[in-house]
Amino acid sequence: MRTILIAGNWKMNMGPKETADFFGQLDDDAQKNIEGVDAAVCPPFVSLSAAFSARKSGSAVKIGAQNVHFEDNGAFTGEISTAMLKELGCDFVILGHSERREYFGEDDAVVNKKVKKALAEGITPIVCVGEVLQERKEDRHFDVVKGQTAGSLDGLTADDLTKIVIAYEPVWAIGTGETATPEQAQEMHAFIREQLSQLFSEEAAATVRILYGGSMKPGNADELLRQPDVDGGLIGGASLKPADFSQLVDIAAGQK
Ligand code: 13P
After folding, report:
1. Distance between CA atoms of 128 and 108, rounded to whole angstroms?
2. Are 106 and 66 in contact (CB under 8 A)?
């Protein structure tokens, strides 16, 4: 019922040339329209145009951005607006990634403004939540994720909820090679869905895709994606290699 989403977060990697090379090397199979699977990559802003140009016509791979500003336009040096992303044709925007929260001071209130702006522009926000290692050690991970989810989605309607994607990314699993176990992922995803059903409605919560992120790769994706509340992956390192990305799409297709 929920279409699996395999989304690559390229972070600060892949300039325009490497982006064009990626699409040049990407397997045709990974670009097919596969029933039950969506695939997307989110290159840096400067590589978005290259991604749109290099993507084969008819390719089902969607393209998204990694951040956006919440104002329409104006004196915000260095920022990018949702209208600009829309003009390019972006389908997704990653919001509230833990690296934005940690290094660029983004809090739930800022993430919330960005989520509302993306929704108003018709771009699907991929809203990231997740605890750091210390919080898990102190058994506070559920509270932390609950707070981030409620704060980031404050003021949304049940209808809005059906138009967003959530990504649970335990910070201790990002780029560390250490993955949450399938049980840990499932437990948190089910917890998030239950919270969404209380905050909005059971029907809307049942439609929301909740992705797992944190060292997901071809070797561990199958088990993670088999969990009933894991509806895809937000993948960093492994999404940079066309062969790995294709394999991830293939594994997702095998779930159906
Ligand atoms: P890695 O897959 O490199 O651990 O990164 C995960 C992530 O942060 C995706 O947004």
Report:
1. 10
2. no
Beta strand segments in the chain, E: 4-9, 37-42, 62-65, 92-95, 124-129, 165-168, 209-212, 232-235
Question: Under 8 Å CB-to-CB from 233, ≥6 apart: which residues?
Answer: 5, 6, 7, 211, 212, 213, 216, 221, 224, 225, 248, 252
**DSSP classification of residue 2:** P
Q: What is the mean pLDDT of residues 219-237?
A: 98
- 5-64 pLDDT tens trace: 999 999 999 999 999 999 999 988 888 899 899 999 999 999 999 999 999 989 999 999
pTM for this predicted structure: 0.97
202 given a catalytic annotation: no
Could you list the residue range(s) of the whole structural domain that residue 68 is in? 4-8+17-253
Please name the residue whose Cα sits nearest to atom 5 of ligand 1: 236
Q: For residue 238, what is the DSSP state?
A: G
**Cα of 157 from ligand 1 centre, angstroms:** 29
**Ligand 1 centre and the CA of 131: distance in Å?**
14
Residues 93-102 have pLDDT tens digits of 999 999 999 9
Residues 6+ apart with CB under 8 A from 72: 81, 83
Examine the pLDDT at 178 and tell me if it is beyond 80: yes
Q: What number does the ligand 1 atom closest to the CA of 237 have?
A: 3
Q: If pLDDT is split at 50, 70 and 90, which confidence band does 256 have? A: low
Active site includes 183? no
**CATH number of residue 163's parent domain:** 3.20.20.70
Query: How many structural domains is the chain composed of?
Result: 1
